[in-house]
């Protein structure tokens, strides 16, 4: 894909998308005085990357030299050299020997007859001397774009000098166009002509999420995700191609339906098909048939009547239109855009002929049906029926996105008076789109049906698709419910569908679990009366989830009802079905091994079926199970995988960010955990989703606690407490934030409130038999006791909590208990406190057991805390006045460190709290002791110190 085609000129670094890893490598190389060569195919973004890096590096350079070659000017000798040195040659001319100066000035100005043949050595040495003279005044940065178009004379001179510039403060930042294939090494010759030890970096294609971001940044918003997926596939992740395709779509009066080709603008067709005229008409037709096929092979082309396929595809490969990889199966175009451009270039009759041939040649019934439809004009009930069967087959194979396109094709070929009718087929396609995670496409199809449908069943079904496509953002479609109820009339089956969704509305928008449970139960009864087992199962599953969270005694029996036969296979593995409700009940009841088996089975089934939203839910569920079990590394991998899927599909981003925050705080990066939790809080507040707002705030409070900001953690977790009381959440195993709140309250000296949290939660946990919650509460209560000076009982309670958590399989919570116990023994919370028997016994300063347990869990943030605590354990003052005994635990620790002369920042680092918390704690200390400053604390201690 050659040609004089320039990438768009954009230099702002903030517009460079999806290049974080490349930029990190380039910056490291350049900051160390090295040089960088970026390479990749046309349109991949090399020039954009080059300009962004040059803008950053120019600040540290004394001289910046630039050139950017073009193909049309590559025959002009010394042009690139003139760009580089033309403006600075007068500054250093007097430092060059006369023969070199004469040769260089002649080459740069065009006066005289300077050539490489005649003045070769003088010119080479002149360029080298010029760069060295500039470097003697300060660092030099050479920025050269499109090295492949450098005139040969400039390329030779630049390469000669570059190879000899080692040891001088000259950096080269260059870019060159190379072939599409990553294994191609055609940048090597440019690397050999660069400064020694130059780092070569390939600019890779963008991921689909980054293509979506790029399109949005450039104003191409509102594109359905299926369209963005097609743009990414057709462009091959090339940003220039993606933007051109986006522009063509924006200018097109009608957008293609799923499965239809994208409009390819003339500019891109000319770029990739410039060599098509060198092929025979027969070879071009063979390539068209290949472009129309989903997985073209030589055998398929032969079956489609292309008798000379080997020779014709061989000619295309020689011209670079087809891939020449030996290991590549079938026939593969050099770039997806080549196939798209070929198809777009053909007229309608040629396309239909290609599809007609493939409809007879393809062995797969789904492919045969698709090609038959694309070869047929107008409605045809037989074609529609075959497409309906193909859509069902694709659905069974776990390819719902394929089923969407087939369903829409079936609707197009279905006569208006047929059964099923065209709108019924469209609604089936919309439901397949929901399954595939294409929520915006599903909503658009449903809205189209609603614009013309009059049958109540079709209208209610379409309204339900609109509701489902909204996800957590129910506030955006609140007006739908009265219209759906009006369309449902008194039909129990239709009313059941609406009541089921009204249950979700009550939960997500109003935060009323009791009302949500009542709506679910009502929906289940209506569905049973109508004989709609699918809706009945969904409603029972939702009812069971509400009862589980509320601590309702009917939860087990409702789950049993939902799991009775007959079952609907898709509901059985749906994220809102009985299987999901049973998993939640198991994990909340501390049955981790059974929960892992249940969720793994569900995940495997939804992946087989291509149920994207359910896959996302079950990935999070499996990650949660691993996190509870103390497998932090595995949990983090699963959480990050689910977040990538959520970002890619736009489904459940807030909920997934929330859970990924918990996994990051346990086994990854705490700053990342804080960022994700804040994102989840913001999204939940935007959506008005009270349920996930409480979960997101719980994740934020946990991350703040791990980060050492106890005061902020208390603020977040107090809000969770208020929200859950309003929601009617009774079961403390739902969010498991209670121990964190109590611990954070102890750290800021609010022991009375901490004990209240423990007492209230313990009563509920005892009633529901939540053993792990009770053990965590004991761990928190031990810290309260230690803060009150009850050292011995606190240690025993912690040791017991650690043992119980270990037996229950909660590895991370067990390690946290061991860590708290080590800290308690290292620094007794009540300085000089007595153990049983009245003897003062300082504890051993060892974190070995806690470190071993955290290491087993791969709990990296906690291991970092251990390392810091072991290196700088907080020490008690030699002797404290009686007044200090009135202080709470954190207050005493802060005061003790003040006596050692520690600054507020040092105290924050050693106690794993924020500077703000230190300041607030000192304010309370001053108030309690009746003093005004930290100097007074030192004075008080000195007054009681023995001579």
From TrEMBL:
GO CC, alphabetical: cytoplasm
UniProt-listed GO biological process terms: regulation of DNA-templated transcription
Superkingdom, taxonomy of origin: Bacteria
InterPro entries: AAA+_ATPase, AAA_16, P-loop_NTPase, Sig_transdc_resp-reg_C-effctor, TPR-like_helical_dom_sf, Tscrpt_reg_LuxR_C, WH-like_DNA-bd_sf
SMART domains registered for this protein in UniProt: AAA (SM00382), HTH_LUXR (SM00421)
Annotated HTH luxR-type domain residues: 880-945
Transmembrane segments: none
Pfam families: AAA_16, GerE
Keywords (A to Z) from UniProt: ATP-binding, Nucleotide-binding
Molecular-function GO term, any one: adenylate cyclase activity
Protein name in the entry: Helix-turn-helix transcriptional regulator
């Amino acid at each position: 894909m050659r040609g004089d085609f320039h990438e768009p000129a954009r230099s702002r670094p903030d517009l460079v998308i999806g290049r974080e890893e490349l930029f990190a490598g380039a910056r490291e190389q350049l900051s160390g005085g090295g040089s960088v060569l970026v390479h990749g195919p046309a349109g991949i973004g090399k020039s954009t990357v080059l300009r962004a890096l040059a803008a950053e590096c120019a600040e540290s350079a004394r001289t910046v030299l630039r050139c950017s070659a073009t193909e049309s000017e590559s025959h002009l000798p010394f042009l690139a050299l003139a760009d580089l040195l033309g403006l600075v040659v007068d500054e250093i001319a007097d430092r060059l020997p006369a023969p070199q100066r004469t040769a260089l000035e002649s080459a740069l100005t065009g006066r005289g007859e300077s050539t490489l043949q005649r003045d070769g050595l003088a010119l080479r040495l002149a360029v080298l001397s010029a760069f060295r003279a500039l470097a003697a005044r300060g660092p030099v940065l050479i920025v050269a774009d499109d090295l492949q178009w450098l005139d040969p004379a400039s390329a030779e001179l630049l390469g000669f000098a570059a190879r000899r510039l080692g040891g001088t403060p000259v950096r080269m930042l260059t870019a060159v166009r190379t072939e599409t294939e990553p294994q191609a090494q055609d940048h090597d010759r440019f690397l050999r002509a660069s400064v020694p030890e130059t780092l070569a970096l390939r600019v890779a294609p963008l991921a689909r999420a980054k293509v979506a971001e790029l399109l949005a940044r450039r104003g191409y918003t509102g594109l359905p995700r299926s369209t963005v997926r097609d743009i990414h596939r057709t462009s091959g992740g090339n940003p220039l191609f993606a933007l051109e395709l986006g522009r063509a779509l924006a200018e097109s009066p009608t957008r293609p339906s799923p499965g239809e080709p994208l409009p390819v603008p003339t500019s891109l067709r000319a770029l990739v098909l410039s060599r098509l005229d060198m092929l025979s008409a027969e070879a071009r037709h063979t390539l068209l048939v290949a472009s129309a096929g989903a997985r073209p092979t030589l055998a398929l082309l032969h079956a489609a009547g292309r008798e000379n396929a080997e020779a014709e595809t061989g000619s295309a490969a020689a011209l670079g239109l087809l891939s020449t990889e030996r290991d590549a199966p079938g026939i593969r175009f050099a770039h997806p855009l080549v196939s798209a451009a070929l198809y777009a270039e053909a007229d309608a009759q040629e396309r239909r002929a290609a599809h007609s041939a493939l409809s007879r040649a393809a062995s797969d019934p789904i492919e045969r049906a698709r090609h038959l439809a694309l070869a047929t004009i107008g409605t045809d009930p037989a074609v529609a029926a075959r497409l309906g069967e193909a859509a069902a087959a694709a659905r069974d194979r776990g390819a719902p996105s394929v089923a969407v396109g087939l369903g829409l094709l079936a609707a197009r070929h279905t006569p208006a008076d047929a059964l099923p009718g065209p709108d019924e087929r469209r609604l089936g396609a919309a439901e397949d789109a929901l399954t595939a995670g294409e929520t915006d496409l599903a909503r658009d199809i449903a809205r189209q049906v609603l614009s013309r449908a009059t049958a109540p069943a079709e209208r209610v079904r379409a309204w339900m698709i609109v509701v489902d496509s909204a996800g957590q953002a129910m506030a955006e479609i609140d007006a739908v419910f009265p219209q759906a109820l009006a369309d449902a009339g008194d039909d129990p089956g239709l009313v059941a569908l609406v009541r089921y969704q009204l249950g979700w509305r009550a939960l997500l928008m109003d935060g009323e679990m009791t009302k949500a449970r009542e709506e679910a139960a009502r929906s289940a009864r209506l569905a049973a009366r109508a004989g709609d087992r699918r809706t009945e199962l969904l409603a029972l599953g939702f009812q069971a989830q509400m009862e589980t969270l509320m601590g309702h005694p009917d939860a087990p029996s409702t789950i049993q009802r939902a799991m009775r036969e007959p079952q609907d296979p898709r509901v059985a593995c749906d994220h809102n079905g009985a299987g999901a409700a049973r998993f939640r009940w198991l994990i909340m009841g501390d049955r981790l091994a059974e929960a892992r088996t249940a969720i793994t089975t569900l995940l495997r089934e939804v992946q087989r079926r291509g149920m994207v939203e359910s896959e996302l839910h079950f990935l999070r569920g499996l990650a949660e199970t691993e996190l509870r079990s103390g497998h932090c590394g595995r949990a983090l991998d699963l959480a990050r995988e689910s977040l990538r899927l959520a970002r890619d599909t736009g489904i459940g981003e807030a909920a997934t960010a929330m859970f990924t925050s918990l996994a990051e705080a346990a086994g990854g990066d705490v700053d990342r955990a804080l960022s994700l939790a804040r994102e989840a809080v913001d999204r939940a507040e935007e959506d008005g989703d009270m349920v996930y707002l409480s979960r997101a705030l719980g994740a934020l409070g946990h991350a703040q606690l791990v980060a050492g900001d106890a005061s902020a953690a208390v603020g977040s977790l107090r809000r969770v407490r208020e929200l859950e009381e309003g929601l009617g959440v009774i079961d403390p195993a739902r969010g498991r934030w209670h121990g964190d709140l109590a611990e954070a309250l102890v750290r800021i000296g609010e022991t009375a409130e901490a004990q209240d949290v423990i007492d209230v939660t313990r009563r509920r946990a005892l009633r529901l038999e939540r053993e792990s919650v009770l053990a965590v509460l004991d761990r928190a209560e031990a810290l309260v006791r230690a803060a009150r000076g009850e050292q011995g009982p606190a240690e025993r309670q912690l040791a017991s909590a650690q043992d119980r958590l270990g037996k229950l399989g909660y590895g991370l919570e067990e390690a946290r208990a061991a860590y708290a116990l080590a800290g308690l023994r290292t620094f007794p919370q009540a300085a000089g406190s007595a153990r049983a028997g009245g003897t003062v016994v300082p504890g051993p300063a060892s974190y070995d057991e806690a470190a071993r347990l955290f290491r087993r869990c791969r709990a990296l943030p906690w291991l970092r805390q251990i390392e810091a605590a072991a290196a700088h354990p907080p020490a008690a003052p030699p002797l404290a006045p009686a007044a200090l005994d009135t202080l709470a635990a954190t207050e005493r620790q802060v005061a003790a460190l003040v006596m050692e002369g520690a600054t507020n920042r040092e105290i924050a680092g050693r106690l794993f709290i924020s500077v703000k918390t230190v300041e607030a704690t000192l304010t309370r200390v001053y108030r309690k002791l009746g003093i005004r400053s930290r100097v007074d604390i030192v004075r008080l201690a000195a007054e009681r110190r023995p001579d």
